[in-house]
Write a structure and sequence with these properties.
By secondary structure, the protein is α/β, with parallel strands linked by helices. The chain has a single domain, classed as UDP-N-acetylmuramoyl-L-alanine:D-glutamate ligase. The protein is built from 10 helices and 13 strands. The strands form 2 sheets. Strands 5-4-1-8-9-10-11-12-13 form a 9-stranded mixed beta sheet, with helices on both faces. It has a 4-stranded mixed beta sheet with strand order 3-2-6-7. β11 and β12 form a beta hairpin. α9 runs antiparallel to α10. The chain starts with a strand and ends in an 18-residue tail after the last helix. It binds alpha-D-ribofuranose. Alpha-D-ribofuranose binds next to β2, α1, β7 and α9.
Length: 297
């Protein structure tokens, strides 16, 4: 069975439930408040762990109780956190997340220690011996580039989740696959990508930039783009939508776990789409994920 290394962000998510998201200059009352594990890197590592696949996380937290609590929650979930360092001069990253009654969100992130992540010798050696490396864009660009370079040298497969969007052509070039949502795809390509037809039309442009791509389209599912063609993978409808925070991260984590176990990209995208749908049925990002299923190889 394979293993995954995630290099990425770790946040304490401060989640505020509201009936509806506030408008500009508006003050509204919260209907609830809670905290949980967040950050795209931590969420993706949690999602890998929820499939029962071995995963380690390279990231940073600040000194103090918040960082320790996050480290403990990740370890409890089965994530190897020995690559999570404590940055003495920065606070643990914090995301301020508003979630409305229909599960939609608005998120503002104070990066804190995520801006201090470094890739040391042990991080590089983890990447070299892993089956799959996963990166996103909530840690410094130089760290992502170094991690991807180490993976490329060692033949470790690279999953790049370009979230939030960042202009990083060298990183994107080794992605197999690149995972982007419709907004990130639009920014990457400089054209509007809203639906399956838009992705199909952009196939050549995507494959000029990366080895393979998966464009996630929310309730419309995902579209897999490879040299063999374009395939739409619908998402199963969730029974209820409680919180969409971290649904994209569940998708990425399960996709990476499937690849590490030797599944084909299409099977991985199907499992990832199912995981994304399931994740919205419960509150919270990483800490709210249920177990995710992968087919047998
Ligand atoms: O993708 C969702 C995540 O984005 C949240 O958990 C938040 O921490 C931000 O990083």
């Amino acid at each position: 069975m394979g293993d995954v290394v995630v290099v990425g962000s770790i946040n304490r998510d401060e989640v505020v439930s509201v009936e509806r998201l506030p408008g500009e200059g508006e003050t509204i009352a919260a209907t609830g408040r809670r905290e949980g594990v967040g950050g795209k890197g931590a969420n993706q590592a949690m999602a890998v762990a929820r499939t029962g696949t071995a995963v380690s996380l390279v990231g940073a937290v600040g000194p103090g109780a918040d960082g320790e609590a996050l480290r403990a929650a990740l370890a409890d979930a089965g994530v190897d956190v020995t690559g999570v360092t404590t940055s003495p001069d920065a606070e643990t990253g914090t995301a301020y997340v508003f979630v409305d009654a229909e599960g939609r969100n608005q998120i503002v992130v104070a990066m804190g220690a995520n801006a201090e992540v470094v890739l040391d010798g042990s991080g590089r050696s983890r990447i070299r011996s892993a089956d799959v490396l996963v990166v996103q864009s909530e840690v410094p660009e130089t760290v992502v580039a170094e991690a991807v370079g180490a993976a490329a040298d060692a033949g470790t497969r690279v999953v790049v989740n370009l979230a939030p969007y960042r202009d990083a052509p060298d990183v994107v070039a080794v992605a197999d696959p690149l995972v982007v949502n419709e907004h990130e795809a639009s920014e990457l390509l400089g054209r509007t990508v809203r639906d399956v037809d838009d992705v199909a039309d952009a196939r050549d442009a995507l494959l000029l930039r990366c080895r393979s791509a998966v464009v996630t389209l929310g309730a419309q599912g995902a579209v897999l783009v490879t040299a063999d063609g374009v395939r739409h993978v619908p998402s199963p409808a969730p029974r209820r939508v409680v919180d969409t925070t971290g649904a994209g991260d569940a998708f990425v984590g399960v996709l990476a776990a499937g690849l590490a176990r030797g599944l084909g990209l299409r099977e991985c995208v199907e499992a990832a789409a199912a995981a994304g749908s399931l994740s919205v049925e419960s509150p919270g990002a990483g800490s709210g994920y249920p177990s995710f299923a992968l087919p047998d190889r």
